[in-house]
Predict the structure.
Amino acid sequence: MNQDPILAVAVRAARRAGSIIIDAARDLKRLPSHAKGHGDIASAADADAQKAILATLRAAFPAHAILGEETAGTVAAAGSDGAATAYRWIVDAIDGTVNFAHGFPYYAVSIALTHGDDITHAVVLDPLRDELFMAITGKGAQLNGAPIRVSACTALDKALIGTVFPTRESPRMPAYLPLLNALVVRCAGIRRAGACALDLAHLAAGRLDGFWVMSLEPWDVAAGALLVREAGGRVGDFAGGGEFLRTNEVIAAAPGIFNPLRETIAAATPR
């Protein structure tokens, strides 16, 4: 996997962004808690990390399009005159920006490549723990070069499930709360750490057994979804299909609890 030239570029881009993020995290530590400058440092780090990623990707693949949280839409390939390209990078320079700004140590760099509707390459870097999660379609998933697999959990009442809350302004919040209430009493535990890509990476490594989220964006889930699939897990939308990048809803889990998790969500979903 390390010999794949596309993955090598994605890793290089993630590492460059990670260095910027770590330097900014040190600057944040020098300020008093909740100092006014925290937001400025976090915003600058997010922008600089994204620039580093985009520069790395464009240098290697000038014909590829790029979609990122900070690009406000898809950036067309160079020389494409706005025409869509079959290859598109989906990037989140800091997944878990609020965590980062507050000094909460749970955030990551997320980079995925899609070809048409298929996610082909994925990198999620936890810069604090120096954990690099990688996946290529058909070639498995790795953590720091070692293969990873999802958990063998087969009972929802034994499962540790991750989630991400909708924002307080989100119109999805009224629909989300019944799902949370239903799953709290069915699972061994619910965890909300605030970084979707990193949650999915931990799911791929067997540290979580399942995950669900509403009101996501493609850059939140693309890389993590491929990690889960290549680690032997299942990923789908709330209807059980594969349109999660379009529907803004995703369920991911070890195979043994995917259906019980989906069925519980379906039963609790407001009609």
